Amino acid sequence: MAFPTDETDRLLSTTRSVRRRLDLERDVPEDLILDCIDLAEQAPTGGNQTSRRWLVIRDPKTKGRLADIYREAGGDWIIDNAQRVAGTGHRSERTLDSAAHLARHLQDVPAIVLVTIYGEHDSSGRPGLFDSVIQSAWSFCLALRSRGLGSAWTTLHLGAADRVADLLGLPEGVTQIVLLPVAWTIGDDFRPAPRRPAREITWLDQWGYTTQRPISGPVTLADGPGVTVEVDVKASPADVWPYISDIELPARFSEEFQGAEWISETPGLGATFVGRNHRDDMGDWEVTCHIVGYEENRVFAWNSVDPENPAAQWRFELIDLAGSTRLRFEMVLGPGPSGLTAVIDSMPDREAMIIANRQKGQTENMRLTVDGIRDLVEGRT
């Protein structure tokens, strides 16, 4: 029998890291915590071994000493940085403020749960430790949420894991995974966090391959097939922006794109340029492109041929990662007519294969482009 998806989905989408809204005054019964651990232990584990161990810390003195270690391991750094960016509008201001609140008050939460497992991580890449604990610890958080309790996933203590082990009497051969403060939440109006839609971060059959709508059979041009490539650049979005907004630059890397010239006098939304392309099997051709997205230091996008019914859609996006930038380059084929549609019309029974070949070629050239931009920005070339 299926579960009621409205309540299940609400639980899954609103189980947040709670810090400021942890009730520091109301006691949490031990039996309630144990009930949540019982549920968490139903999570899968490598080899079906019962190697997870849960340490519940409720003694005020022990919590105080643990909180001191937590602050010395990194909590004081968070508090200092939260004060430094307060009122500046910095992208991490709210997160730092919330994390600083927890660092200041960790000793005040009713209970702290340390999730551990027997075994030591040997860097071999073999499964057995983290992959046997993470899902269980998150199930614990879900169980808390379903009962009106909350927590915040934190691993800051791992910077002083030896001191934590000494304080709590952990034996050798036990690995600490995550620290979870537990309290009733103040209010229950938690909301889903902003996240990218699944269609933007899910690839189909091959890495980076996308479609604009669900498919139930072979991919067709009407499905909006596309490609996404990404690379992290050790620079700020402002440092990367001049490179993605230079319409000539990709010609240095792509084996198909040969160059471009602006038609419009001023680059910006609604501006146009002509792109030149070459393939040995198709010869030379030019395409008029229309800027449909222009947000300085964030988005540079264009549609080819017809802005409303494009032959292809292209988009650079810069994602600020606080210290680096994720450069994302997307392409969608169609829906408008193009040389590709002419080929498909001549061989309709081979449409899926034709699209896959085009995706493969575009992936290679787009990867060369983003890697080339990264190397230029970072001074590798």
**Total of helices:** 10
Q: How is the largest sheet built, in terms of strand order?
A: 5-6-12-11-10-9-8-7
CATH superfamily of the largest domain: NADH Oxidase
The average pLDDT value, as a whole number, equals: 93
Terminal Cα span: 59 Å
Overview of this structure, please?
By secondary structure, the protein is of the alpha+beta class. The chain has two domains: 5-184, NADH Oxidase (3-Layer(aba) Sandwich), CATH 3.40.109.10; 198-377, Alpha-D-Glucose-1,6-Bisphosphate, Chain A, domain 4. The protein has ten helices and twelve strands. It has helices spanning 5-14, 30-40, 60-85, 93-105, 134-146, 161-168, 198-201, 237-244, 339-346, 351-377, and strands spanning 52-57, 111-118, 149-150, 174-184, 209-210, 226-233, 257-262, 272-279, 283-295, 299-304, 312-320, 325-333. The strands form two sheets. It has an eight-stranded antiparallel sheet with strand order 5-6-12-11-10-9-8-7, covered by helices on one side. It has a four-stranded antiparallel sheet with strand order 1-2-4-3. A hairpin with a 3-residue loop joins β9 (283-295) and β10 (299-304). α2 (30-40) packs across α5 (134-146), α3 (60-85) runs antiparallel to α6 (161-168) and α9 runs antiparallel to α10 (351-377). The longest helix has 27 residues, at 351-377. The mean pLDDT is 93.
